[in-house]
Design a protein that fits this description.
The structure is a homodimer. Chain A contains eight helices and no strands. By secondary structure, chain A is mostly helical. The radius of gyration of chain A is 18 Å and the shape is elongated. Chain A starts with 11 loop residues before the first helix and ends with a helix. The interface between A and B is small, with 7 and 8 residues. Chain A binds a DNA duplex (30 and 30 nucleotides) through helix 1, helix 2 and helix 3.
DNA sequence: GATGAAGCGGAGAGACTCTCCGCTTGAGGT
DNA sequence: ACCTCAAGCGGAGAGTCTCTCCGCTTCATC
């Protein structure tokens, strides 16, 4: 998923470090904001600054990688949920996850997105990955006949985003109710 | 408009410098992005770093001030246009200005907004200032009976923003056409 | 003009990003 | 098992950026 060059795969320790750094960075960004120093992240990950900067030539590349990883996790969850639950429930759970994600990471996501936007290749990648996941889960639920046939994957994405934005100014109770309303609307009547 | 303390007005030189810095910063941000060093801006404005940092205790405050000024200019233009032109034309011109602004400053505005968002007091101020301006110009045009009665100031803001987003991926020609379509839709039929 | 307060400039402290290079370690060959 | 060497590592330090401090200058007032 994040291999650099398929011709010669990363050495085991290099890959370990790469993943370690992304994980630590994600934690650090969430806890302390995107302004946390890169050297700090290196230290917390138990690697030298050189190692960090070899994997991520600039600070922005690191931010990009975290953003990408975050989105990738959200998309992956769609596929995982499909294996664990019946499609209808999977879709409902996924939408709820999406909303929680938007609410919890709102500020972070905005800043990450702003940092990433310039070299928007990554941004495009994220968008298509999310859409593919959303399409898949929606289609599965539709094949079972549990949700309306005229809903698209993009709709779900937008609903998740919209609900999240609305919910970030509302209480947890309200959020649940809003989500319930939308879920009800999605089901075949 | 940007006075700090009405009790004791700024000294003339201080105010001059304040305005100078904001103007230079706006130019610098537009030309070179928001990452341009604060010291550079001080130099270009012909003041010492100390002066800059007294007026704007942190770099973010400077960004905030520029964002605020930018929005303020857009809002002010609504009132200015109302004095120069008949209300219908004023509204049309303003909407076009808005679109151009969104297109030209898209990247910048996003980053500014992301930087500002945390201490969102400024953000709120900007929003209400824009809405007031929009409401005023819409109401004037409606009183003349030249645009639909069911349109609100917020609608115009949204249209401006939406058109701008759509237009940033389209050609100048397309933008003009899109704008013409919307303007046509706004007129009483 | 004289005087005090408000404001100015820029050297420099501290922090951050990124580079460089000698040392270490994993992986393939024998 | 051991050898070899490219791949990878760490961290000192160069260069840059933000922000502070304080002696000097300028404005406003009398």
């Amino acid at each position: 998923m994040v291999t650099a060059d398929p011709a010669r795969p990363m050495r085991a320790d290099a890959r370990r470090n790469y993943e370690r750094i992304v994980a630590v960075a994600k934690e650090a960004f969430t806890a302390d904001g995107v302004d946390v120093p890169a050297d700090d992240i290196a230290k917390r990950a138990g690697v030298g600054a050189g190692t960090l900067y070899r994997h991520f030539p600039t600070r922005d590349k690191l931010i990009e990688a975290v953003y990408r990883d975050e989105i990738d996790g959200l998309a992956q969850q769609a596929y995982d949920l499909l294996e664990e639950l019946p499609p209808g429930e999977a879709l409902e759970t996924w939408l709820a996850t999406h909303v929680v994600y938007v609410v919890e990471k709102h500020g972070l996501a905005m800043t990450l997105k702003a940092s990433v936007d310039a070299g928007s290749e990554v941004f495009g990648w994220c968008q298509s990955r999310l859409r593919a996941a959303s399409d898949t889960i929606v289609k599965a639920a539709q094949d079972e006949g549990v949700i309306r046939a005229d809903v698209t994957g993009t709709d779900i994405l937008r609903l998740g985003h919209g609900l999240g934005s609305a919910a970030s100014k509302a209480s947890g109770e309200d959020t649940k109710r809003l989500l319930a309303i939308v879920l009800d609307g999605l089901r075949v009547s």
